[in-house]
Specification:
Helix content: 10-25%
Largest sheet: 4 strands, antiparallel
Shape: elongated
Oligomer: single chain
Order of helices and strands: HEEEEEEE
Number of domains: 1
Radius of gyration: 15 Å
Distance between the termini: 47 Å
Number of helices: 1
Strand order of the largest sheet: 3-2-5-6
Length: 97
């Protein structure tokens, strides 16, 4: 079903968010907080532990944020080129009681 949706969207000029295109960049995010939430450009994408193979993104400037209730958020801005492959580390500091 996923490929059918991707083909239908491709015919309209759009792509499904979970279907990687050849020109997409892929970013692998690592952190000391495995269950942190990943936000990209202000939108929730996934939990860190669920993004094992990385996140496919269009080339350009993207703002990454890791959030967790028990830690201070971590921020990173990346400029991605066509077909980039990047591994980044975004550690988080624990909020003290």
């Amino acid at each position: 079903m996923r490929w059918g949706l991707a083909l239908a969207l491709a015919a309209c000029g759009a792509t499904a968010p979970d279907v990687k295109q050849r020109q997409d960049a892929v970013v692998l995010v690592q952190s000391n907080v495995r269950d942190a939430q990943i936000f990209i450009d202000g939108r929730f994408v996934t939990f860190l532990h669920a993004a094992g193979a990385g996140i496919a993104l269009k080339p350009g400037v993207h703002r990454f944020e890791l959030r967790h209730d028990d830690y201070f958020s971590s921020y990173l801005e990346l400029t991605l080129a066509t077909s980039d492959r990047k591994k980044v580390t975004m550690n988080m500091a624990q909020i003290l009681p």
